[in-house]
Every structure is written in structure tokens, then in C-alpha cells.
Amino acid sequence: MPKLSAKSATLLVLAALIAVTPFFFPSGYYYRVGALIFVNGLAVTGIVILTGYAGQISLGHAGFAGIGGYACALAPTHLGLHPSLAVVLGAAISAVLAWLVGRPILRLKGYYLAVATLGFGILVAMVLNNERALTGGPDGIAVPDLGLRGLLKDWGLELTNGQFWYFFCGLVLLAGAWIALNLHQSPTGRALRALHGSEIAARTVGVDVARLKLQAFVISAVYASVAGSLVALQNKFITPDVAGFMHSIEMVTMAVLGGAGSVLGAIFGAGVLTLLPQALTVLAEYEQLVLGLVMMLVMIFLRDGLLPSILRKLRGTGE
Amino acid sequence: MIKKTLTTTVPAALVALALASAASAEIRIGASVSATGPAAFLGDPEAKTLEMLVEDLNAKGGINGEEVALVLYDDGGDANKARTFATRLIEDDEVQAIIGGSTTGTSMAILSVAEDAEIPFISLAGAIDIIDPVKPYTFKTPHTDRMACQKIFEDMQKRGIAKIGMISGTDGFGASMQAQCKEVAGDYGIEIAADETYDPKDADMTAQLTKIKNAEGVQAVLNPGFGQGPSIVTRNYKQLAIDLPLYQSHGVASDGFIELAGKDAAEGVRLPGTALLVAELLPEGDAQKPVVTAYKAAFEERTKTPVGTFGGYAHDAFLILTDAITRAGSTEPEAIRDAIEATKGLAGTTGVYAFTPEDHLGLDLSAFRMLEIKGGEWTLVE
User: Fold this and answer.
1) B120-172 pLDDT tens trace
2) Labelling B84: which of A36, A276, B4, B357 has CA 20 to 30 A away?
3) Given the DSSP bridges, would you call strands A141-142 and A237-238 parallel, antiparallel or unpaired?
4) In B, which residues are within 8 Å of A28 by CB distance?
5) What percent of chain B has pLDDT over 70?
6) Which residues contact B162 (CB under 8 A, 6 or more apart)?
7) Is cis: bond before B357, omega within 30 of 0?
8) What tens digit of pLDDT does each residue of A265-295 get?
9) Which residues constitute the domain of residue B131?
10) Cβ of B103 and A139 within 8 Å?
11) At residue B210, does pLDDT exceed 80?
12) Same domain, B157 and B107
């Protein structure tokens, strides 16, 4: 039997999980949680490209999610665009902004990107909060319907709202994971991992370090933007929380917790951090405490992230 | 013989079982409030109020002999989380009605889930957008900013004031009320001659107040704002010795405001507040007096903190809901909805509610009491 490549194996596992788990859902609420995991997983896959492959840290990716989300709210009403095109527009704006922010910064070595993106994210959140006439301010703004569920219904495929978003977000996540995995094995991906290992070494062998870092940053911004758009379209309503600083931190935490170096690991991290708060509602005020404790323990004992560490233990190749 | 007993006893047992489960089928009420996070000042008293009211109700035997279960979640003020919890309440916890949405954002998120699932929802947030246009399953308890403006302008009209200056905070509350007041001022023949703003973090507003003072023919000043801003405005107002009536908003209707502004500076300040603030002052026979005093006593006894307007919103939502379920005699969401819409003359802490198919707020201007601060105490103007 021919051995599956790591890429096909990851995609197969992911597809199987998306297809099979609904059979075990006791109620429609689990579709919603699933869809949230997939959306977070998509944003975190972008973080894998930036942090896991290229070794750069961004503390402002929620800003891009905000741009993607508000594009879906504003472009259809003000520009008359179809919501699906608004997603594309949001991604394009995010890419351009990422390029503008990243171009001067990524020539430098060190923590400059983290600080610059931190400022960028807070800036986006401030604009969304204060431009009340356009964005509706802290109270949020309505987002038009994507219309795809109605279209499927006309074709004879009737899904509940929850089911539709579960499978739709699942498919987008699969596509996102596929692109990220392809990138991993491409010459660009190898060059990215090389510069992660040692920038100087990468440069000596002819890698254009600044350009590659910029590429990774722009791609990951597009991931966050599309994830933001999916949240907005799914909720049919959006508030500036989506661009909040805590959301940026959440994305990085999900990636690091699950294992920033692997796509499946990061998605696993997104799953854990999306499920935990739902499971911990019984503990009410201790929720934050338990969350913090779990993260500390993972960082101390499973430093590569949950999934890679567990897999290694299973294969029996621990250090 | 054995066969015969089986055929009779088994169905009988089944019927008994079905009846038993029907009798113990409790009433399930869901709630998602912002007990933590930036909106905790709203959600925390709301959560405490709901927990208290459910315990009291069950101690008294529940509704129509059935126990009430409260499923309470903390959405932290995040609309995305609020939507998830609303989905969970409806799909997983199978509640018959939802209370919550401490903020406008979370309320709008819950609203669309509740409307889709046709589950009655009573919001605790201020914005008029929640019930305008009217949605079949959505109701709300707090009065709107527009009503506060109208109440203030009504009082100004009585005093013969026709030209005013406004100084508003740029926070969500202040900005929203500023816009609403400007919209309705014309209806009361009031002209806004000066319109100034301040940042909620500003420590001095004398510059803006001096401008208003120097504006031609201003007869009174209105300050829509929330938090510490209005107390600073009030102190600066006194320092500048502006000798015009000062109106504050319902956003500062609490004892904390008098403390922050100082007894002297606050003297003569008027604002629209709820009956809850002046529970002791209400005349005997006032429809709201019994409910307001009872809630105040119970809440302060249980939490050892002063009662506030926001907890009162949750109190009223719970009251409207339990009253509707009692009258409906059913836990069918459709029946509960119809009963809520038929609510008439129900006295809550915020006002006396009367819903109609066209009005899902159910309050009029009488819900606000015009209060004046005299000698560091609240007094009723009317």
C-alpha cells in the first residue's frame, strides 16, 4: 500500500472529522460550535503560515478580521456589492494594508512586527468604535444575508442555518488548509522555514528574507480577513469586538497551544480553545482560572503544542 | 390471567409515566448577560437579580405549581459569544424564553437567533433599534434615550425654557442621547443654541461651559453623559457660577453622582430617573410603590450593595415573563409571546408596562420621574 503523504493525510483527517462528527451531535447547537471552530481554525491556519513557517509574531491579526467583517457589512449597503464579493474586497483591503504595514517593518529583525501589528490592530478597533455614522459604533451593525442557503434550498438541498454554516465553514477551512499545506512543501515554504531556522543562513543561500516574510504576512492577513467575513455573514451582525486586542491574542494562543508548526495542530488548538469556554460555563467564575491553568501546563510540559507532542508520544519518539 | 394483567397494567403504567413527566416538566428560562467584561456594570446586577428572583419564585411554589429553572450564561459583552449562547439556550437547553442582552450589540445578536427559532426574547438594552421596527418575538424593558430627552424637554417647556445649550460626552451613551435629543427638541419648541462635547476621560469642561455661558439667550443646560463626566460638568458649572437650570441624564441617576459632584454643586440639578431611586418618596397608592420597595429591600438584603436601574431592567423582564406564563397557562413559546403582547398595567421597577402589537417597549413618559437634588437628597418634582 502506498504511504499517504503528510498533506493528504492531514486533509483526509480534517475532511473525515467535518463529515462524521455531525452524526454524534445531540442538538443543533453543536453545529454552531463546529462552525466557530472552523472559522477560528481558518484564522489560526493563517497564523501557522506567519508564525509557524516564517517565525514572525503578529499581535494585531484581529484588525484584519475586523476589516473582513465590516467589509461584509458596509460594501453591500454602500457600494451595492454582493456579500460574496464583499468578502473578496475585504481580503484585498487587508492584503494591501498588510503589505503597507509589513513592507517597512519586515526589513528589520526582531520584535518590530509584533509592536507594529499591535498598534495596527488597536487602530482598526478604534476606528470601528468611533466612526459611529459609518460603522454603528460599539453597538455594531447588521450584515446582509449571504443568500447561498436560499440558493441551495432552490436546488433541493434544505439545511438549517446551523447546518449550512457548519458545512460551509468546514469547506472553506479545508480549502485554507489545502493552500497552507501546499505552501509548506513549495520552494517558498521551504525558504520560509529556512529563515525561521536562521535568517542569516537563509540569506547566505540566496533567500530574499524581507520579501518572503512580507508574503507570509500578507497571506496570513487574508486568512484572518476571510475568517472575519465568515463570522459577520454567519451572525448577520457584527460589533467591533471582532477587531479587539483580546481576539488577536486568542488567535496566537490557539496556534501556539495546538502547535504553531502544523496546520492540523493549530486547528486542534482552535478547537480546544473554542470548546473549553463552552464546557466551562458550569464553573462560571473559575472559567478564566482553568483556561489559564490549562495553557500554562501545556506550555510547561508540551512545549511544541498539544497535537505534535501527543503524536510524538503515540509514535514513541519522545526525546 | 397473567396475560390480561399485563395488557391492562402496562398501558396504565405508561399513562402514569407520561403524566408524571408532564407534571415535572419544569419551565425553563434562559438568560445571557454581560456579567463580566466592559459591560459588567450592567450585567452583574442583572445576573444577581435573576438568580434571586428565580429562587424566591420557586420558594413560593413556582408558576402554576411548576418549578422554574434558570439557565444563565455570561457573554462578556461579546456579540459573537451572545449568539452562541442564544443558540445553546434554544437548541440544547430547550428554554421557552430568553432574557438578556445587557448591551445593544449582544441584544441584536440574540434577537436574530430568537426570531428565527420563534422564542420570546426580552432585551435589557437601551437602543430603539431593538424594537423598532417591531419584531414578533422581541420585547425590551429599558426606556429609550429619546424618552429621556422628551421627559427633560417636557419639564423645560413647563418652566418656559425655549433656548438651551447642550454639553455631551462622546461615549456611546452620550453620543446616542445627544443625537436623539437634537431630533426631538423641535417638537417641544426648544432651540439648541450651543452644542458642545467632551471626551469621557477629560478632567475639566470649563472651556466648553464658558462657550455655552456666552451663547446668546441660553436659558438652561443639558448634559447627556455617563460615568464621571457629568459630575465634573456639574462641579465646573458651579465654579463658573452659571445661574441657569442644569439638567443631567438618566445615565447618572444614582447616589454616586451626588457624592462625586458634591452636595453644593449638585443642588438644584434635575434629571429623569426611575421610581427605584426614590422608592421611599413615592406617595402611598402609587402603582409602582409596592414592587419598587420589595425589590429594593430584597436586593440590598441579599447582595449588600445599593439597588440600581440596571438590575431593575432584569427584574422587570423576569416579571413580565412570569406574568405572561402564568396568564398563558402554557409553556408554548407562541402562547407566551401572545401573553406578553397582551400585558396591561403591569407595574415594574422601571415603569408600568402595557404592550401592544405595535409597541414592544410598553412604557410611556410616565415611566420617568423628574427628580431634583435638594440638600444632597433626591426629591420628586411633580
Assistant:
1) 999 999 888 899 889 999 999 998 888 999 999 999 999 999 999 999 988 77
2) B357
3) antiparallel
4) 87, 91-92
5) 93
6) B189, B190, B191, B219
7) no
8) 999 999 998 998 888 887 767 777 887 888 7
9) 26-144+289-366
10) yes
11) yes
12) no
Q: Name the residue among B80, B84, B127 with its Cβ closest to that of A241.
A: B80
CB contact under 8 A, A132 and B175: yes
Residue B20 lies in a domain: no
CA–CA distance from A62 to each of A70, A238, B39 (Å)? 12, 13, 21
Chain-chain contact of B91 with A162 (C-beta, under 8 angstroms): yes
User: Cβ neighbours of residue B328 under 8 Å, at least 6 residues apart?
Assistant: B335, B336, B338, B339
Query: What confidence tens digit (pLDDT) does each residue in B73-114 have?
Result: 999 888 999 999 999 999 999 999 999 899 888 999 999 999
The continuous run of DSSP H or E covering B378 comes out as strand B377-380
Minimum-distance CB partner of A162 among B80, B81, B87: B87
Count of structural domains, chain B: 2
Same domain, residue pair B200 and B132: no
ipTM of the complex: 0.87
Q: Which residues of A touch B (CB under 8 A)?
A: 26-30, 32-33, 36, 132, 137-140, 142, 161-162, 231, 235-239, 241-242, 277-278, 281, 284
Chain B: give the shortest CA distance to residue A226, in Å. 16
Q: What is the CATH number of the domain that holds B121?
A: 3.40.50.2300
Chain A, nearest residue to B129 by Cα: A139
Task: Among A32, A140, A277, select the one facing B108 at the smallest CB separation.
Answer: A140
Residues A72-102 pLDDT 10s: 999 999 999 999 999 999 999 999 999 999 9
Contacts of B199 in chain A (CB under 8 A): none
Domain membership of residue B119 (yes or no) is yes
Q: Residue A244: closest CA among chain B residues belongs to which residue?
A: B78
Amino acid at B289: K
